[in-house]
Design brief:
The complex is a heterodimer of chains A (147) and B (157).
Chain A: H1 2-38, H2 49-55, H3 63-76, H4 78-87, H5 92-104, H6 108-116, H7 122-146
Helix pairs in contact in A: 3-4, 3-5, 5-7
Chain B: H1 4-9, H2 14-24, H3 26-50, H4 52-60, H5 73-82, H6 85-92, H7 99-111, H8 115-125, H9 130-156
Classes of the chains: A mainly alpha (147), B mainly alpha (157).
Chain lengths: 147, 157
């Protein structure tokens, strides 16, 4: 037991550093998002994106959190994801669709790069995730709209 | 300056509104990090020394052949599931896996990793669905990895 207690200060310190890193990355992203929003960048859904999102059971308000999750990941995208899903009043169904898509496919650049360094194939590590995420979310949307 | 009082009553420019709104998000973000991410991170650090990792990989080792992987890869898989991808890569690097094996491992872990810490985000995003979504990640990851392990040798041959 005592060796676990001895580990606590180091673990807590490392954890604090991780939190500071996340904060340093996420806060500027949130400010950038808010500034872009203040200039009306997200006022209307971008052309062509609306119908594609609708097939996944997502409204136009889900575009920014979806992109944040796909590229930044769940942890670094968390600030945007959580704030957006609350503020834009995403429905319960939309939030579930977002969650199903993103748990399957997020942080596509970082995750793929790590295993590419070990010699993995970017295509075979990424394409199945993307296909599964789209297929699963679209299936969920069709199923729940058919009820 | 006579125009000053009127200009002060005008709404601030959009960039200022954005800056203020962004900064206001800082406080809840700090709380989320300190109350949720920090304790979960400490918990995963404890996993390393309690032997929980090697206990779980003990179950996985005999069946790693299903994914065309050596028994030692079970430790990488477990580290990825419970800790993160960097820990998994550190364990996997010395194993001398070929590109197909790394791709299978990368696909399984790409879908299913950092389940404890990321679970905090999943729980906030879809309340009440944490366990089913975590099971989905594990099932999809292992399933997709198995399928890839069957396909890749045929593709590369």
């Amino acid at each position: 037991m005592s060796q676990y207690l001895a580990l606590l200060p180091t673990a807590a310190w490392d954890g604090l550093i991780l939190c500071a890193q996340i904060f340093a990355i996420v806060l500027p992203l949130m400010i950038a998002y808010e500034v872009a929003k203040a200039y009306g960048l997200f006022a209307r859904p971008w052309k062509g994106v609306g119908p594609a999102l609708a097939r996944l059971g997502l409204g136009p308000g889900a575009m920014v959190p979806l992109l944040a999750g796909i590229f930044l990941g769940l942890l670094y995208g968390a600030g945007i994801l959580l704030a957006m899903s609350r503020e834009d009043n995403l429905s319960h169904r939309e939030r579930l669709a977002l969650a199903v898509f993103l748990v399957t496919c997020h942080a596509v650049v970082e995750d793929t790069a790590i295993f590419m360094l070990l010699g993995g194939s970017a295509f075979w590590m990424l394409a199945p995730r993307l296909v599964l995420a789209v297929a699963l979310t679209a299936w969920l949307a069709r199923r729940s709209s058919g009820e | 300056m006579p125009s000053q009082p009127t200009s002060q009553k005008q709404a601030p420019p959009p960039w200022r509104q954005g800056l203020t709104a962004g900064l206001q998000r800082g406080k809840p973000l700090i709380w989320f990090l300190l109350k949720t991410i920090l304790p979960l991170y400490v918990a995963t650090e404890i996993f390393k020394v309690t032997g929980l990792l090697s206990w779980i990989s003990g179950f996985l080792a005999p069946v790693m052949g299903l994914w065309g992987l050596p028994p030692e890869a079970a430790a990488a898989l477990t580290a990825g599931f419970l800790l993160n991808l960097y820990a998994a890569a550190a364990v996997a690097a010395p194993l001398g896996l070929d590109w197909a094996q790394v791709s299978v491992l990368g696909l399984i872990l790409g879908i299913s990793h950092s389940l404890v810490v990321e679970g905090a985000v999943v729980r906030s995003l879809a309340p009440g669905r944490l366990w089913s979504l975590t099971a989905l990640r594990l099932g999809l990851g292992l399933g997709a990895g198995w399928a890839l392990a069957q396909i890749l040798p045929a593709v590369s041959a």
